[in-house]
From TrEMBL:
Extent of the signal sequence: 1-17
Domain of life: Bacteria
Claim: Signal is one of the keywords in the record: yes
Protein name per Swiss-Prot or TrEMBL: Lipoprotein
Keywords for this protein: Signal
């Protein structure tokens, strides 16, 4: 009987418990693209835009598409996740900027 009461009590508590917030990986911008903090994995310049955007969307939430004004020739897309902005040609990840820091081809 006690077990049934305890199970009922716990199930009622679980229904109102908030869903756990996912802790995504930390991307570390550098001269070659993006490192992944604590891992040897990387997202280097030259990768497909679809794969790069999907990985960041999965870990940081949906990116925000920015206008491609002020971009070097060939850069067709900018996508921002908070203060991290990545730039892409039609086929490749080519740059990033965060605050005053940047690498690769970036829009100004």
């Amino acid at each position: 009987m006690r077990a049934a009461v305890a199970a009922l009590f716990l199930s009622a508590c679980a229904a109102g418990a908030p869903e756990a917030v996912r802790q995504g990986v930390t991307f570390v911008p550098d001269a070659r693209g993006l490192g992944v903090a604590g891992h040897s994995q990387r997202i280097d310049f030259g990768r497909s835009p679809e794969g790069v955007i999907a990985a960041l969307d999965r870990e940081r939430g949906a990116g925000r598409v920015l206008a491609a004004s002020g971009c070097p020739a060939g850069v067709q897309r900018q996508v921002a996740w908070d203060d991290l902005v990545l730039t892409f040609t039609e086929e490749r990840f080519v740059g990033w900027r965060r605050g005053d820091a940047a690498a690769g081809q970036v829009c100004v």
